[in-house]
Give the backbone structure.
Amino acid sequence: KYPFFPFVKSPRCFHVFPILYFTSYQDVFVVEVTVWMSFDGFSFFFLFFFFTSRQKSEVGRPGSKVTQAEDVMHLAVVACGNRLDETLNMVKSALLFSIKKIKFHIFAEENLAEQFEKGFSQWPQTVSSRFHYSIYPITFSVGNADEWKKLFKPCAAQRLFLPVILKDVDSLLYVDTDVLFLRPMDDIWKFLKAFNSTQLAAMAPEHEIPKIGWYSRFARHPFYGVTGVNSGVMLMNLTRIRSTLFRNSMIASGLSWENLLHPLYQKYKNHITWGDQDLLNIIFHYNPECLYIFPCQWNYRPDHCMYGSNCKAAEEEGVSILHGNRGVYHDEKQPTFRVVYDAIREYPFEENLFQSLFYPLQTKFLDTVNTLCGRIPQVFLRQIEKTMRAVYEKKVVRRVRLPRE
Ligand SMILES: *[C@@H]1O[C@H](CO)[C@@H](O)[C@H](O)[C@H]1NC(C)=O
Ligand SMILES: *[C@@H]1O[C@H](CO)[C@@H](O)[C@H](O)[C@H]1NC(C)=O
């Protein structure tokens, strides 16, 4: 009846035809709306323009705050009793080879705090400019503090509370005091980015061979996987830990990390031997999809060589992180571990790494080749040599480039 718009000839007839189109020019986003109206045979049209500026992405721009925050790695350790020197040596090994800056979170008994400060103040300026640290007292936010302190060894349970205490920290590497880095901490830090959407922590297996593993033979409580996990080197995405509800054997609806710890401890305290590590094994037994497993060379212990070599990856690549548990840095039971510990302790900062660290280490290693762990020297030496070469080359390149900058 009505011919097609805009030739409408009927009274009391009213048409609106909005026409929309979008365009963008550089960073400006344009929305144009044309409204064509016809009324009683008259036609009008209106044009409306909207301009919006496209939001510029902050991510990945050099110098922005976002990237700077990500460039710092966080490392936590809990030191009590006579662990001062061991902890300083761990920190030293992390600083010798790492690339990005490190923030150390040191939880220590009151009388140790001052000694840490004194230790750090004696290090050269070139080293102290590459890290920050905070020293915290030992605190337990839930349950009976004395009871937590007695669990396993003094203060070990502290690390279970890191997600609750370090609320501003997104991710963290926790290590025992008897750990030594033989390659940049940056390399283990990269595993955080390899997590899938459910993983929130990473550890290495407690053992490679179930037949001789401790958990598979003796544990009287649930544990992760076939051999359990060792908690001496543990990577954590604290943000995820804080926001996850964990399945458990007590409450069907799941519990947050903070609310899980105390009931879990109450339930299992008479069945656990290795304290906090056992509690972590129980948690990840019920939540296996939350755990990322990294290979044994990232947490290499006497167990990997004293019954014969059973960490195959370390034979090929060398040890990345050495974990001298059972006190082997301080006695004569496993001289290979002690040789590495002493070489790092005696290395004077700023001296040539090959001359003052690697060659002495290699020489002392010759005396250990007839011990169980010294039989395959490349397990201990291959990675550290590679690391030093990389550090050395980086320094040379920096020196060569300096005049042009
Ligand atoms: C940790 O997890 C949170 C939440 O999934 C994520 O936003 C953050 O990037 C993760 N941190 C790292 C270092 O991957
Ligand atoms: C993440 O990996 C773990 C371990 O391989 C697995 O159990 C879990 O189902 C994975 N999660 C997703 C969302 O794929």
